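#struct-pred
JK: can someone run the complex with zinc ion? inputs below
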Amino acid sequence: MPNYTFRCLHCQAEYNIRCSMDDREQVACPDCHSKQKQQIFSSLRISHCYKESVCAGGGSCPHAAACGRDRG
Ligand SMILES: [Zn+2]
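RT: done, structure tokens with the ligand placed:
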């Protein structure tokens, strides 16, 4: 299973979770148990791509290529 890194939007803690892709939604912060989180792409440490509507909108996001949401 892949490892995912998240930043908690509630307490700002960063944590790594090994889970299936489908289980990411269910992951909760180990500190405050909030499920409100932003995925961090650990090799890139990009902090702007939580704006998925921007990234998914057709390449207007300046980080699109790096964040994996590059739609061309
Ligand atoms: Zn938290």
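RT: quick notes.
The two ends are 28 Å apart (CA to CA).
The beta strands are 3-8, 14-18, 37-40.
JK: thanks, will look after standup
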